[in-house]
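hey so i finally got around to running the thing on that chain from the lab meeting. sorry it took forever, my laptop kept dying and i had to restart like 3 times. anyway pasting the input first so we r on the same page abt which one it is
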Amino acid sequence: MERPGARWWVPERPTLDTLRAAVDECQGCELYLEATQGVMGDGPEDAELMVVGEQPGDHEDREGEPFVGPAGKLLDRALADAGLDPTAVFRTNVVKHFRFSGTRGRQRIHQSPNRVHVAACGPWLVAELELVRPTGVVLLGGTAGKALYGPSFRVGEARGRRQDWPSDIGGAAHSAYVPEWVVPTVHPSAVLRSRDRDEDYDLLVRDIRVAADALAGHC
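ok and heres what got predicted. didnt touch it at all, straight out
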């Protein structure tokens, strides 16, 4: 299957508005065929913190905005509980089109993107990074972590610890702009699925607070 990658659709001098318009035209991989629309990141262009998840979900695909479903609402609560203003955070995903497998009632069932989809979408994340230029990045879940650090990345081993931006692994590592630090943690959707939701939510807040402290100059 031909996957030319998103680089042919990324504007030469992007703004958030031109990125949002251009992602709807992207045919960098086959995911555009079934998705309703591309979903670019959203938030202040001068945000100090960028949160990077996996891909749009069913709600995001229909509405065209990132993190507007149940996981996004939980993320907003966790950001606030960690001492951050959710409206000041730029949030996006490593893959911009929703991948799903079948339906359950009216809801389409999420299917994780694979490495070729992440690689094809890499130029979109690079464009967002170079436009927003965040001080730090919070990675939500394994797909986002692998996009930067490669297939050996494990959330459980890395979560809640400040790390350097990778120098030579992952499509987004080729960005000309390099954030000062990265903090990995679990994706909020994993908390929603957890049998120990309260405990896992507290751990998510703890991890995000590492980023909040870094922004405040506490670390």
